[in-house]
Design goal:
The complex is a heterodimer of chains A (about 425) and B (about 90). Chain A has about 425 residues and is of the alpha+beta class. Chain A has 14 helices and twelve strands. In chain A, helix 12 packs across helix 13. Chain B has strands at about 5-15, 20-30, 30-35, 40-45, 55-65, 65-75, 80-85. In chain B, a hairpin with a 5-residue loop joins strand 1 and strand 2 (about 20-30). Classes of the chains: A alpha+beta (about 425), B mainly beta (about 90).
Chain lengths: ~425, ~90
């Protein structure tokens, strides 16, 4: 029996949530009806667009664009800083409402989720009517609009939901794929992004339909095993379950930060790397893992990206060890270009319930105790309660990367 | 009615199940401090806009010898009262 899967996606989530909150608190202006964006930091007057309203689209505002460029084109635009605690509250309210309709929900990101609606025909005989009812109830009770895509699998439900926005219900069942999905540009297919699109264009594939009918041998030659996955996706074939049991096991932890100015001094770069390593290692120890691979990435002021990685002989979760390795990688990688964004990532995990001693280094248990103590202090009194002295009066944050809310549901690339 | 959303001081009584009921409230209007006794609570609704639970009270009181209708809001997570519309 074929499944019925819903994909629910909040329209312009951050903006809609902020608009709804303001209306509830007496605002007479709906942010969704005026040119407005969410983004930035009022204090530093820097930042990028995280979400935009439909009137803002008329000014060609793009998500990810700098606020400076937006202000040039549209001086009257209203800019609101993000509030991650509000977004988590809205997301939780959405999930609570959806749980009344099915127990099998996969929270895909803070504003998207999948719902398994199979075997609900005794209560809701028509899934499309049920989707309309859910959409209208969310609008009425929670004050924001969603798009709902309906199909037999998650991939088609997600693509179907994106067909036309806002506040709509779309179906994209397998028999509708040639008519509704194949004419779309190939970059609209889930899993095909900035890197793969030009490669597909080079082999003459511009639409999803062309990808669906392309020669499999050719796709395997150019894209290896992913070529087969892409073609299956283009044909609407995807069979993963709606995973309501939580996330798959972590394979890597990374944090990056975009700096408000160009960094060209090694000592400043080291400070930023240290602040990123602090965040990454806190998360690593919290997840009870040790890592064997560390990688550093640099994005220059001309948006050129490079990265470098190295392996440890023995897995570690010690902030100092990972910091020293990250600095060494940075020294090898940096070509004196002006740096705009730095990232640190650790992977190749193993459990932290044992310590692998090395013949070449003396094991110092004090390092582990120091890390544990600092983690405990920060957990009790806040992340900024204790920090390295090099950050005092430095102008840099001692712990950077990530979002200000601890349990923020990050989007995953796995369907 | 005009939207005001003015923070107010409130005296309320609570039912056994924890539901608040407004009794008397006070707010600053220009240079004056105005106290209003809630005459009658016409309806109570719960709002969950943006996941933020609020009780909306449609009330009526005699103010300056006239029956006036107004709306009060109680924000559950912050325990704040507001004169929403008057």
């Amino acid at each position: 029996m074929s499944r019925i899967i819903f994909h629910i996606d909040v329209n312009s989530a951050y903006l809609s949530w902020e608009a709804a909150w303001r209306l509830q608190h007496g605002s007479t202006v709906d942010l969704r009806d005026i040119p407005s964006v969410i983004g930035g930091d009022e204090a530093s007057r820097h930042g990028i667009v995280l979400a935009k309203s439909i009137p803002a689209k008329a000014y060609n505002v793009q998500t990810g664009e700098s606020l400076y460029a937006v202000r040039q084109r549209c001086p009257n635009i209203v800019i609101i800083p993000p509030r991650y605690d509000l977004y988590m509250q809205c997301s939780a309210a959405l999930i609570r409402l959806l749980e009344e309709y099915s127990p099998i929900i996969q929270i895909f990101s803070i504003d998207e989720c999948f719902l398994d609606f199979t075997c609900m025909e005794r209560i809701w005989p028509d899934p499309v009517a049920a989707a309309h009812m859910i959409k209208n109830r969310i609008k009425q009770e929670l004050g924001f609009t969603v798009n709902i895509g309906i199909s037999n699998n998650k991939l088609l439900a997600k693509i179907g939901g994106d067909l036309k926005k806002p506040d709509m219900v779309h179906t994209l069942f397998p028999e509708e794929v040639p008519e509704k999905m194949w004419p779309l540009p190939v970059e609209d297919l889930y899993g095909i992004g900035r890197a793969t699109t030009p490669k597909l264009h080079k082999v003459g594939i511009y639409t999803i339909g062309q990808l669906a009918k392309a020669d499999l041998t050719m796709l395997l030659y150019y894209f290896k095993s992913y070529g087969k996955v892409m073609q299956e996706y283009a044909n609407g074939i995807e069979n993963s379950d709606v995973a309501s049991g939580g996330q798959p096991p972590m394979k890597g932890i990374g944090n990056s930060t975009t700096i408000s100015h160009d960094v060209d001094d090694k000592r400043d770069a080291y400070k930023i790397i240290l602040s990123l390593v602090e965040t990454v290692c806190m998360r690593l120890r919290q997840a009870k893992y040790c890592a064997r691979l560390v990688s550093v990435s640099i994005t220059s002021n001309e948006f050129l990206h490079c990265s470098h990685q190295c392996k440890f002989a023995a897995a570690t979760d010690c902030t100092n060890d990972i910091y020293q390795a990250a600095c060494m990688l940075f020294d090898q990688l940096w070509q004196r270009q002006k740096i705009r964004k730095l990232g640190v990532r650790v992977s190749e995990f193993c459990g932290n319930d044992f310590v692998q001693l090395s013949l070449f280094e003396k094991y110092d248990e004090k390092k582990k105790q120091l890390d544990t103590t600092i983690d405990n202090i920060r957990m009790k009194y806040g992340t900024r309660s204790v920090f390295r002295s090099c950050f005092l009066h430095s102008g840099y944050s001692p712990v950077s990367g990530g979002v200000p809310a601890e349990d923020y549901t990050m989007m995953t690339s796995i369907l | 009615m005009k939207v005001l959303m003015k923070p107010i001081q409130m005296i309320a009584w609570f039912t056994e199940s924890g539901k608040p009921n407004p009794v008397k409230f006070k707010f600053i209007y220009g240079d004056d401090c105005i106290t209003i006794i809630v005459g009658k609570i016409i309806t109570v609704e719960e709002e969950k806009i943006a996941g933020n639970r609020m009780y909306l009270y449609k009330c009526q009181s005699v103010i300056d010898n006239t029956e006036k209708l107004y709306e009060l809001k109680y924000e559950i997570n912050t325990c704040k009262w507001f004169l929403f519309k008057m």
